[in-house]
Design brief:
Length: 77
């Protein structure tokens, strides 16, 4: 079963975010709650935790890319 990691809404007025850096690479094992990537908005930079444990099988948004809230960033299997 795959789980999509999506760009979260970081505040009522924040509609997009930028992937600052990935802490994991495709093929890496991740644990639920472990920092997966850092995103930045015009108001805050924050780490996004892995929603589940598993293997990071796909990264869909590269570092320095800005995407709207709800965009699939990665897939964990």
């Amino acid at each position: 079963m795959s789980t999509e990691v999506v760009m979260p809404r970081m505040g009522e007025t924040v509609d997009e975010g930028t992937v600052n850096t990935w802490h994991k690479a495709v093929g890496d094992q991740v644990s639920e709650g472990e920092p997966l990537l850092e995103i930045g908005t015009d108001k805050v930079d924050t780490d996004i935790p892995a929603p589940v444990s598993g293997t990071l099988v796909e990264i869909r948004v590269s570092a320095d890319e800005t995407v709207p809230v709800g965009t699939v960033l990665a897939v964990i299997q």
